[in-house]
Amino acid sequence: MVSTRFLLAGLAAMVSAAPTTPCKPKPQTSPTLPKLGGSSELPAPAANLTLKKIAIGHGIQNYTCGAAEGNSSAAGAVAVLYDATSLFPGTGRTALSQGAWDSLPSTLLRQQALPLNKLSGTEYGADPAKPFPQPTDDLRLSGLPVVKFLGYHYFDSNNVPMFDVTTAGLKASVTKRINLAAPNGADKGILNTGAVDWLELGDSGKGLSQGLSIVYRVVTAGGAPQPCSVAGVGLQSVPYTTYYWFYG
Ligand SMILES: *[C@@H]1O[C@H](CO)[C@@H](O)[C@H](O)[C@H]1NC(C)=O
Ligand SMILES: *[C@@H]1O[C@H](CO)[C@@H](O)[C@H](O)[C@H]1NC(C)=O
Ligand SMILES: *[C@@H]1O[C@H](CO)[C@@H](O)[C@H](O)[C@H]1NC(C)=O
Fold first, then answer.
1. Which atom of ligand 2 is nearest to the CA of 70?
2. How far is CA 229 from CA 117, 124, 128, 168, 233, in A?
3. DSSP type of residue 120
4. How many CA atoms does the CB half-sphere of 173 hold within 13 Å?
5. How many angstroms separate the alpha carbon of residue 199 from the centre of ligand 1?
6. Alpha helices in the chain (DSSP H)
7. Pocket of ligand 2, candidates 71, 72, 229: which has the most ligand atoms within 8 Å of its Cβ, to mutate?
8. Mind listing the pLDDT tens digit of every residue in the chain (248 residues)?
9. How far apart, in Å, are the Cα atoms of 51 and each of 115, 122, 171, 241?
């Protein structure tokens, strides 16, 4: 029988041979907003603000056409938000490679059906009475960690864009401050219409925000409208995905 003392002595030798600071975490990279790489960039958030969440959103951008020969006008959006914060490259155990992170909006747009209750008779429309499934599922994409449900993006009854970051207890009621065209290489979307602009969204001043004061929409995929001559008169809903960066 092998003596317990012998085993313990062996273990002790192994432990003492280990590096002296095996548990020291790697320095965390603090996520910085992606750049367009062109002549203009969205301004960085004020120094007194901190990054609260990075969401990946999946939903539809709405437009209306008044006449078949006219141009469409933006008419709101509906999207489900998932918590992508811990996937940011270099930040920890579930972090993605830079390439996988950069292409995640495109991957999501193309691999996953819209996470909205469908409006019957339309391809991408959402049910206006109840656009969001309840409860909303977490995101499960093959080869990626589970991305947890985070909240909802919609336009409120006064037509003001709202981000209800439900599971984090945060809200942002916003107004558009800056829009810049997405880079040339951006995913043009399911309808090949183009990627919507990158945005800086500021507080709407309506007193509805909670813990958030600025939101950026970056790395957009899809969401631009079809010409009215193609879409026809009325409402069109175009699938899109994007990152939303929330600061407060
Ligand atoms: C950050 O500073 C600005 C003034 O520069 C101030 O208006 C704002 O309330 C501050 N925000 C926070 C979250 O401290
Ligand atoms: C549609 O938009 C284009 C480009 O902005 C503009 O040149 C054209 O006059 C617009 N057409 C109508 C009918 O508003
Ligand atoms: C966008 O269109 C969908 C139909 O596809 C509708 O359910 C939703 O209420 C619309 N949202 C806004 C903000 O207009």
1. 13
2. 27, 18, 24, 42, 8
3. T
4. 12
5. 20
6. 4-17, 98-102, 104-111, 228-231
7. 71
8. 444 444 444 444 444 444 444 454 454 568 999 999 988 999 999 999 999 999 999 999 999 999 888 889 999 999 999 999 999 999 889 999 999 999 999 999 999 999 999 999 999 999 999 999 998 999 999 899 999 999 999 999 999 999 999 999 999 999 999 999 999 999 999 999 999 999 999 999 999 999 999 999 999 999 999 999 999 999 999 999 999 999 99
9. 26, 37, 14, 20
Ligand of minimum distance to the alpha carbon of 239: 3
Q: Which residue has the least CA distance to atom 5 on ligand 2?
A: 71
Burial class (CB in 10 A: 0-12, 13-18, 19+), 169: exposed
The β-bridge partners of 58 are 80, 241
The SS3 call for residue 15 is helix
Number of helices (H), then strands (E), in the chain: 4, 8
Chain position carrying tokens 């969440």: 53
pTM for this one?
A: 0.87
Ligand 1 nearest atom to the CA of residue 49, by list position: 13
Task: With residue 203 as reference, give the H or E element that holds it.
Answer: strand 198-203
CA of 48 to the centre of ligand 1 (A): 6
Domain residue spans of the chain: 48-247
Tokens of 56: 């990946």
Q: Are 213 and 49 in contact (CB under 8 A)?
A: yes
Nearest protein Cα to ligand 3, atom 3: 126
